[in-house]
Amino acid sequence: MTIASLTQLICFVVLAATVVLGGLGVVLLPNIVYSAFLLGGVFLAVAGLYLLLNASFVAAAQVLVYVGAVNVLILFAIMLVNKREDLSAIPSLGLRRFLSASVCAGLLLLLLRVAFTTAWPLPGPEPVGEEATIRIGEHFFSDYLLPFEVASVLLLMAMIGAIVLARRDVFSTDVITGEPADQGLLEKGRSPLLIETPSTTQAPSGR
Amino acid sequence: MTSTFSWLAQADGGLPLQAFLAIAASLFCIGVWGLINSRNAVRVLMSIELMLNAVNINLMAFSSYVDGQLIRGQVFAIFVITVAAAEAAVGLAILLSLYRNRETVDMERFNLLRW
């Protein structure tokens, strides 16, 4: 075993342990802030796995988008909705967890069996290695041009949709009466539509 | 160290494809379990991100091992990352508006459309 392959092996073992243990921590830790930071660690470890697969561009995109955007977004959401609440007990929670864990273990066994028994067409063509970024650019502007453009439209739609869903101010007023127009569904101050006990959660008026 | 993990390496010293597939399968199953069992809605979104990452690992592994010249898997992985970012933004916005209406993030109490 050469020194290069040994280094690769050690990196893979460390990254794989980080991914699996971090994923378990994300799911199992009681404090959700710890979960969010562990999720960032999992994303970084997955980026490391991409680097092991000679995909530097996707690894960079993973770090930028997942660690830089999605994880920060999740942390902000935690800060915005982080209310200490005592969750009401559910009957037979243990049984439920056990059943779902056994279903997931069965799924894992199935996937592992598929992975280890299928005759993959290996070895495939020689990997392009460092030229991967060039190839990805060629794909984006030739045979994957339409999905690329559709993805940009999708991002725009998601951005506008997120703004509209998360906003709380009234941004349009009736021209004649000067009153807020048609924002009742988004506006908590007017009528909390879905709340079971409206008296306890009235927002301060005059917004 | 070498002898402990030497079964992971192939004859030529490289990592086998199955190692990546096994990691991805484990991460996916962890994500499924978290998706079913989380009571905090933010944690549900985090579990979905874990599952998307597991799929991405699979795509990248196949792209490198089976489709080494065209690397279509990497292109797919970038599209998945894009859609995941959009999904996270919209999901967290929905969660925020839900929290404003119901004053909770407990999944068990989001049962308005449940028979």
Write structural notes for this entry:
The complex is a heterodimer of chains A (207) and B (115). Helix content of chain A is 62%, strand content 0%. Chain A starts with a helix and ends in a 41-residue tail after the last helix. Chain A has 207 residues and is mainly alpha-helical. Chain A contains 6 helices and no strands. Chain B has 4 helices and no strands. In chain B, helix 2 (17-37) runs antiparallel to helix 3 (41-65). Chain B is elongated. The termini of chain B are far apart. The interface between A and B is large, with 97 and 85 residues.
Describe this structure in a few short sentences.
Chain A is built from 6 helices and no strands.
What's the Cα radius of gyration of chain B? 19 Å
Shape of chain A: extended
How is the main sheet of chain A built? none
Mean pLDDT of chain A: 84
Which oligomeric state applies? heterodimer
Helical run tally of chain B: 4
Query: Which class of secondary structure composition applies to the elements of chain B?
Result: mainly alpha
Distance between the termini of chain A: 70 Å
CA-based gyration radius of chain A: 24 Å
Number of strands of chain A: 0
Figure out the total of helices of chain A. Answer: 6
Q: Secondary-structure element order of chain A, as H and E?
A: HHHHHH
- Terminus-to-terminus distance of chain B: 56 Å
Assess the beta-strand content of chain B as a share of residues.
under 5%
Topology of chain B as a string of helices (H) and strands (E): HHHH
Tell me, rounded to a whole number, the average pLDDT of chain B.
Answer: 88
**Shape of chain B from CA axes?**
elongated
**Low-pLDDT regions of chain A:** 184-207
Q: What secondary-structure arrangement, pairings included, does this model have?
A:
The complex is a heterodimer of chains A (207) and B (115).
Chain A: H1 3-28, H2 32-52, H3 56-81, H4 93-117, H5 132-140, H6 145-166
Helix pairs in contact in A: 1-2, 2-3
Chain B: H1 2-5, H2 17-37, H3 41-65, H4 72-102
Helix pairs in contact in B: 2-3, 3-4
